[in-house]
Amino acid sequence: MKYKRILLKLSGEALMGDKQFGIDNNRLLAYAEEIKKVWEAGVQVAIVIGGGNIFRGVQAEQGGMERTQGDYMGMLATMINSMALQSALETIGVHTRLQSAIEMKTIAEPFIKRRAVRHLEKGRVVIFGAGTGNPFFTTDTAASLRAIEVEADVILKGTRVDGIYTADPEKDPTATKYERVSFEEVFQKNLNVMDMTAFTLCNENKLPIIVFDMNKGGNLMRLVEGEKVGTLVDF
Q: I want to staple 208 with a disulfide (CB 3.0 to 4.6 A). Which of 115, 118, 134, 234 is the partner?
């Protein structure tokens, strides 16, 4: 295996599948099966999921809600998704732990770095919920922060597209895909990889990012085995 410890970042919207809102159980189970394959292969897996399929703090602010309140509501949405993924994984026999950046002791452990690392070392999938626990930060930033804290080898950002393009491939048919791009190029060309706070964290801590299509079966396994899938952002 090329990577021993990964942080998988999933968007909340990806869990909707063909629905307009909420969680598509078939999509959830498909993701769980993909994660199980790499877990069974001995890869240590940490996961961060967004909450956009349930609630987005930024959109709430546009509607007149105070941003801080909206962001905390968004963090709760990530916990709903995290609990759903935990349940799906445990249903198929994957040992998991859910850690929350906001104390919710009835349903999750508090985030403690040493405990998270110990879980990973013992072969448990660790899901990090509630973002960073602070407003004004995205789940991309939470993914970058947690990956650095647990010393992951790479962030694997699972999306609906198969990498980073010169433009949005869903809107521009002439957009071409990058196989590999440097952090500096992403800054210069203003490519959409992660929000700038998250991206800068990865850059400063020399943490590579791979953007790939999570909806294509087998992609996650191919990535951890070292195949060229999606777009690699490194140095």
A: 234
